[in-house]
Amino acid sequence: MIRSATTDDANAICDIYNHYIRNTIVTFEEQPVSIEEMKSRIIDITDSLPWLVSEEQGNVFGFAYASKWNSRCAYKFSVESTVYLSAGLTGQGKGRPLYEALILDVRSRSLHTVIGGVALPNPASVALHEKMGFKKVAHFKEVGWKFDRWIDVGYWELVLGNPEPGAAQEFHSANGP
Question: Burial of 52 by CB count in 10 Å (0-12 exposed, 13-18 middle, 19+ buried)?
């Protein structure tokens, strides 16, 4: 089941995310995130953008959210996407339905572009983005430092093709929400 995240999911989300902080280069955070901090992040994101979780029998095993790409006003129709699964579940097709649901939600908000940043190497994340239709648009060499080594970051972009903001307003007015 895929549903909107709530602050009640913070503990499960921390369990998933903190594994990646402690053991991988896929996030550039270096200190585990507290449950209270994660609750705050969930509230901040869900105020205006989607944060989804995947669960099975009441247990959250993945999360995905969209966040502002940049704080400058002209970027307001572009978001950055994030998706994480519990350790050991990558490469099993469990991330795709979650990511599809996130993109569908983003599209419904008349947002125009989704950007996915990937710390490299990360073949599972690259494959997921490309299966979802994202195209690689940038590769920055040695921009992160974690676990005593330099890390490259690639960016993948998905242009949703939503109408221009003024046209989107007219479209919604004529066709309902």
Answer: buried
